[in-house]
Amino acid sequence: MIRLHLCTISFRHHLVSLPELAGWAGAQGFDGIELWGVHARHLADQPSLDGQWLQARGLTVPMISDYLPLEGNEADAIRHTRDLCRLARHWRAPKVRTFAGQQASAGMSEDQRRKVTRRLGVLAQCVADEGLSLMLETHPGTLADTVDSTLALLADADHPALGINFDVLHVWESGADPCTALDQLAPWVRHCHFKNISHFQQLDVFAPANVYSPAGCREGMVPVLEGACDYRPLLTALANWRRRSGTDPLDVSLEWFGPDSYQVLATDLRRLRHRLGDARRSQALTACQ
Length: 289
Prior knowledge:
- By secondary structure, the chain is α/β, with parallel strands linked by helices.
- It has helices spanning 18-28, 37-42, 51-55, 74-90, 110-129, 147-157, 168-173, 178-185, 208-211, 232-238, 241-245, 261-288, and strands at 2-7, 32-36, 63-65, 95-98, 133-137, 162-167, 189-194, 196-197, 221-222, 250-254.
- It has a single domain, classed as TIM Barrel, CATH 3.20.20.150.
- The protein is built from twelve helices and ten strands.
- The strands form two sheets. Strands 1-2-3-4-5-6-7-10 form an eight-stranded parallel beta barrel, surrounded by four helices. Strands 8-9 form a two-stranded antiparallel sheet.
- Helix 5 links the parallel strand 4 and strand 5.
- This is 3-dehydroshikimate dehydratase.
């Protein structure tokens, strides 16, 4: 089973309230709303808005996406992590997300890897103490920028609270086949991000400095099923996630950074549900033959 969510980061430059966004998401048929850490912090002064309030509207918060410090003062990093966990509990979110550092795996020394891995273990334990899970996002410019480096990181950290936010486009960007990578990482995959691009050469538009800038370039950003990364084989693989992985239903967030957020997200949701439904029906028919 796949649960589909929108990301509040898609509305980072919009003047829109969470009640308005929740009303729209529920009407469209989304299962939940992934909260950007910045937004979760700014909503803290509205205590009546919380996980219970959202669940009453048929929605959940599957994950709060933030950026935990893997360098610098450890006490500060622990404090930041505990603050994030408090926000996650407020929203009844079972997962928090971070990046695996800010340096590409190929340029990192063994000593640097050990330090990042050790810090991740410390923060994973902080998250585990709160009954939550820490998701590492597959992303360029981090220790999770290739499948091999990600697997090594997970093995070295060796913590049950660590999982993977499988960003399909960034896995594809690394040169890996998303379906093969999903097989390799399946025991740790707890969440996915879906987005797409017209051409491989345009992937730079997803660089954080560009994405977060109101004046950033959006050229090449396209709906999930219309880009250079072919999602169809992956959707077939995901159609029966519980049976395939033995884990709970998989959460997927549509991470749209371009214009016309409402229209694109609504269309992507409809198309993905249709595609996943077709894949499940096809697999069921094949199993019966």
